[in-house]
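Field notebook, page 365. I keep forgetting to write these up properly, so this time I am using the form the group agreed on. The chain and the ligand, adenosine-5'-triphosphate, are recorded exactly as supplied. Prediction of the bound pose follows.
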Amino acid sequence: MTEPVLDIAVRHKLGDFLLDASFRSQGRLTALFGASGSGKTSLVNVIGGLIRPQSGHVRVEGETLVDTARGVVLPPHRRRLGYVFQEARLFPHLTVRQNLLFGHWFVPRALRKPAELDMVLDLLGIGHLLKRRPGALSGGEKQRVAIGRALLAQPRLLLMDEPLAALDEARKAEILPHIERLRDEVGIPIVYVSHALTEVARLATTVVVVEAGRVGACGPTAEILSRLDLASRPGAPEASTLLAAEVVDFDEAFGLARLATPAGEFAIARGALRAGQRLRVRIMASDVMLGLAPPEGTSALNILPGRIAEIGERSGEGGSTVHLRLDCAGEALVVRLTAKSAANLALAVGKPVYAIVKSVSVETP
Ligand SMILES: Nc1ncnc2c1ncn2[C@@H]1O[C@H](COP(=O)(O)OP(=O)(O)OP(=O)(O)O)[C@@H](O)[C@H]1O
């Protein structure tokens, strides 16, 4: 059996706060998701070595960084970890090239790979910035240089703590494809802290939900986002369906792309998509309507036949809402309705229904 990418079980008291977290992740990008103060940064600090846990272990791809039972606690500089924080923290007096190579100097000479710099420049699209100093870079460019610097230290794991939180939407959009390439093309696993669900939905392969110092749930992203039992818990992600999609064609006249997904086809109003492109789409549970028959004479373009697979507990104020999971062509689609609507339609497990999704509600995170 292959070792998990991350194997963590730690207990540590910080004042009144108890971090008591354990999870294993097989993911290339493991997102730590949770409310402010839930313990995400504390967990990153335990992995990074800034917090020495009172008990527990931290293993990365089978390598032990911490095992208190065996008296093993590697100091931070021996852990070979790369860090990217909310602010880029570049050296202002050094050029981009010097900032990038700063990390490289700490790699033992025998392990340095000469082609690494070219790979990093290409991956992050920063080759044209080498001579500039950080003062002449945009926030997004600074952050890409910070990622490059961390990568050039050839870490065994990259820790990214809210790396996009300080950027505006345009800069975030510019940097996200680079993080996707990093996830898919470089063999370095990533721990990514975020409380932004769109980032998690787009980037994560595994999600760890952190709740008051504990791990509330851990699993593949689509599974965690669609779990009905999590949907009503405070601090847990709002229920949504995440689907792998491929663009079939693009209707120029109406600016509509047709997407094939395992749950069925969707038309979405999104420019700049080209046939063959692969992407993730997300549909919030509250953006889906249900009908007992295929509706006629509506504006909705996306109507998917399915069956009720699971009905969750009632939640919301006074138990006014209910989450349901449909089976659409073998794929799960989560829906949030008022309890009254569910009762009016006499919804029960196994009942055939039609899910209606407005094109403008299909998100491409
Ligand atoms: N040194 C400390 N002494 C006492 N309490 C601490 C200490 N460090 C952190 N805490 C508490 O531990 C809890 C978790 O903090 P942490 O920064 O890990 O949360 P977080 O999920 O990263 O939050 P945010 O998203 O706001 O950054 C908080 O309640 C915080 O006040």
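OBSERVATIONS:
- The radius of gyration is 23 Å.
- The mean pLDDT is 89.
FOLLOW-UP: compare against the apo run.
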